[in-house]
Structure formats: C-alpha cells, structure tokens
Structure prediction request, 404 residues.
Amino acid sequence: MSLTFWNNCNLATMRAGAVMPYGLIPDGALVVEGQTLRWVGPRTEVPADLLERCTTQHDAGGALITPGLIDCHTHLVYGGDRAHEFEMRLQGASYEDIAAQGGGIASTLLATRNARAEELKAQSSVRLQQLLKEGVTTLEIKSGYGLSLMDEGKMLEVARDLGQEHRVSVRTTFLGAHAVPASFAGRADAYIDEVVGMLRELHREGLVDAVDAFCERIAFSPAQVARVFEAASALNLPVKLHAEQLSDSGGAALAASFGALSCDHLEWLSEEGAVAMAQAGSVAVLLPGAFYFLRETRLPPIELLRRLNVPIAVSTDCNPGSSPCTSLLLMLNMACTLFRLTPEEALVGVTRHAAQALGLADRGVLATGHRADFVLWNVKHPAQLSYALGANPCREVVFEGQVR
Ligand code: NIG
Ligand code: FE
Prediction:
C-alpha cells in the first residue's frame, strides 16, 4: 500500500506519559498508510525505507497537528428547539420547574416524534456540520427523545445515517431511560420494563453501541437505572450515566458498579462516588455548556477527580434544553474558565480521554497503529485552542487518512 508523508508541522500527540506537555513534538512528521498512522515522530528521524515508499507528500505549512477531536456526549439528533423555555428560564423558571410542567425533555419528545426521519436528519445534519468544521472526527449520539420503540429506533437510525453520509465516525447510545413519557406518568417502573424491551430489540437491529440513563429526581432512581444496566450487561453492552447533575443521587457509584465507561455532568458528585469511579476506571465527562446554560453554581469536584486520577473528558452535551451548543472549541475554553481545567487537561479531554469515554482504544492520540484522524490548526501552540473565544483556527481535517 502506498504511503503519505506529512511534514512541516508541530505535533501535539496527546500521548499518555509523554515528557513534553501535550506530547509535543516540534518539527514533527507523520506517515499515513491507508486509514492508519504508520509512523509519528520528529521529522529528522523518519526511517529512510518508509520515506522512500511515500508516494504523496503534504507540506502542513507550519500547522499544529492534533488528533481528531472527539465529542463523547451529544444528543445531536432532535426535533425543534427550546428557545421559548430559555426565555422562561430568564424570567425565573428553573429547568426542573419547566420539566415538571410538561416542558423540557417532553417538549422535545413531541417535536422529535412528529418529525419524519428525513426532516430529523436534515435538522441534525446542520448541527453536525458545525461540529465537523471545528475538527471533530468522532462523536457519540444518544437517543432519548423518542421513548418508544419506533421513535428511539428512528433516532438511532438517523444517527447511523449521519455517520454514513458525512465523513465522521458516529457511536450510538441508547438513552431510553431519559424521561418518563406522559403515557407512563406515575408508572416509571412499568416504563423501565418497556425500556428493557426496547433495548433488546434495538440491539438486535444492530443500532446500539452503548447504554445511558438519566439518574435524577426528575428522571430515574438508581434502582430503576440498575434494571436498565443489568439488561445492558446481559447483552455485553457498555454503560454510562447522566449522574449527579442537579443533585447527588448516588448514580456515579451505581454506574461504577457496572464498570461504566463514563459518568457525566457530576456537579454533585460525592467523594464516595468519585472513589467508586476511580476503582472502576470510569471517565468523568464534564459538560461546561450545560453548567453555563443552566447557570449552575456548584462546580464538579475537579481537585478530587485529579487527586484520585479519574480521567477527565470534556464534551458539548449538544442538546436543545441544557446545552444548545455545537462548538467543542468553546467547551475547551469554558472547561478552563468555568471549571479551572488547564488547557492541556481540556485538550486531553476532547482527545485521549474522550476516546476512553467511548471505549475506543484506536484513536485520541497521534501514535503508530492508531487511526489516521487528525486536524491541522492555524496556531503555534495548543493552548491557543482553549484560549480563543469564537475563533475557528481549523485549517484542514484528515479523516481515515484522507483530507476531508
Ligand atoms: O445532558 N440531563 C439530561 N439530559 C440532557 C438534557 C436534556 C434536555 O433538557 O433536553 C443533558 O443535560
Ligand atoms: Fe446529556
């Protein structure tokens, strides 16, 4: 197979345990073979036999190259919007009040059910393209606004189709336990039976990569979530959880007991929950867009996560209610300004740790044998990616070895 050579660039490899911050390699080079990185290192050290076999050469023009960005928590596929609820919140209503009055997730449920698959895809594709422009090469998309077999299936199929129609890798997550639909009001346990049935069927159709739930007083109890996770485990599907977003329900510890890939939000995470996550190797996915948009004041326990060596990822949480956000670069900035992550932690959070949160060992770093998904940026230093607000220095994206 022919090889492609990229040089005249600085590499932020994001490798674990690198001596240099960001795993930086100044004046670096990459050799790509098909869809895979064949060699990564300083330009002056490229093995001569590999160089000889390179049939294409790319001058990166002094760009900084990072791994392709990974958005590991999104609800990108949904119908309608919730601008009106935004107005209500600005007049004093809380996110939980609105949900209790039949708005919130329930209102997006209606709009999503009412949209035909093609409409849903068209609306979602606009958002996807905004993420792609900023260098996203992998993203997770959850269901959770259908809450019936047919509508959850429609969402997951749209998510899969988006991955076929755009040059991006999509991982689908079943979030049937996102809210209790009106038809099951007061019968959450009966709805959980339904969720378990949906999961088995959607898994059989090959639409599910992972299983999520919303563990919260306005959603499901740990005992109810446990029933969904037991069903997921029986199907060998990995789990993750919306945990400790608005209150401490003990969701993180429960998810950790199922070996969760990640626990997400975590503003109310307790020490006990964090210890359980550390022991299980679960990633803490922080969602500064939701924190900002809901004007939360309680910060996730960053120092505790650092002390326990819990890997931290950062994501948009792109959704119509709590984070209508399609900029992962903006999330880098907010993770630093609001949560006090360092720019290096933030960038690890949308590369290596985001890959870990999705259970993907073949991406998130620039290293031999990993996928050739990477981004050329018009910046000198990786901290600039977290620093600038509203800028998009993305010059070029390489996806599976080919310029996108
Ligand atoms: O991640 N917390 C639950 N789910 C979403 C919000 C869903 C919605 O409001 O539509 C979240 O914040
Ligand atoms: Fe979410």
Summary: The domain at 69-357 is CATH 3.20.20.140 (TIM Barrel). Residues 73, 75, 242, 317, 319 surround fe (iii) ion (ligand 2) (CB under 6 Å). DSSP finds 16 helices and 15 strands in the chain. The chain has two domains: 3-67+365-403, 69-357.
